[in-house]
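During the reporting period the student researcher (J.K.) took over the structure-prediction task from the postdoctoral fellow and processed the backlog of single-chain submissions. One of the processed entries is reproduced below for the supervisory committee.
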Amino acid sequence: MLALTVNLSDRSYPILIGPGVIAAADRIIEVLTSPRVLVVSNTVVAPLYLQRLTAGLHASDIHVAATILADGEANKNWQTLNQIFDGLLAERCDRTTTLIALGGGVVGDLAGFAAATYQRGIPFIQVPTTLLAQVDSSVGGKTGINHPRGKNMVGAFWQPRLVLADTDTLQTLPDRELSAGLAEVIKYGLIRDLPFLTWLESNLDALLVRDGGALAYAIERSCANKAEVVAADERETAKDGGRALLNLGHTFGHAIETGVGYGEWLHGEAVAAGMVMAAELSRRLGWLTAADLDRVVRLLDRAGLPVRGPRLGADRYLDLMGHDKKVLAGQLRLVLLRRLGEAMTFADAPKAEIRAAIEHCCGDKGI
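J.K. obtained the following structure tokens:
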């Protein structure tokens, strides 16, 4: 088992990574504030892992209830959030009840938002079962739901007490979901960890065949990168860089997810296409070379990810990107690459260049 800590003073918490950690009831019990938990999962994950998670809790006389949601990004909305509140109220949960999210990023975001708002805040544990959730959404405390006009536009910062990333759960993950998670893994190499990017180029085949050691290392390295960023800028308030750098490709990617309809593209797929657009724009601004761009595209393509966006039209992309959370005073700020391994936020990209990058990466010609 690998372990690391997200350092947030009195709200610091551990991340445990490895095979079988989903059954680490003793580690869960250590952070409970009462012997009562409500597990939030979905119809795909619960049949596979709910019993494994709760067996040790039952054996220790912990009262366990569960709320099972429909699967998919299309359900990340107010209606599904209310199902969690219904479960909490039906079980007469109080402020000492701990909410446990068992599933991917959608479950984690929904359960985290419910934990942040039920009775103005209750304890929360993340048990992510997808690669994307293990390396990104379960760490850092961002929670929320989608709005028809923009992804993750309603939410709260609410840190978990514990994250259990069980690498065994990745063995049942569909290939498409594994690839989607690799997009966020690759992101860390592009924005701040060039040696990790080089390691990924050499070890991608091992990740794709789900080698346990390679997966554990990639998850640990990704979480370590994110933990450092979150500790320095928890609520994304830094004026230059900071936590916003974790959003490489996300402004373009969220436009894709909203534009085509939530759930049509997986989040990681949209981010991958978005990172290509960001890299292309970085090339047009003179920071990346053509060889750098090719390196980004080849790695994402090898990971089974889309390197071209859907043809929504540049006007539609720009309209949707205008709802991005990094927009300040009406000014669009993009995360771009000064060089491979070094990201930056940039608010002065000419709209004509942004439009050209979008068209190049989404039309019939180009990449």
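The committee noted the following: The chain has two domains: 2-172, 175-362.
J.K. will present the remaining backlog at the next meeting.
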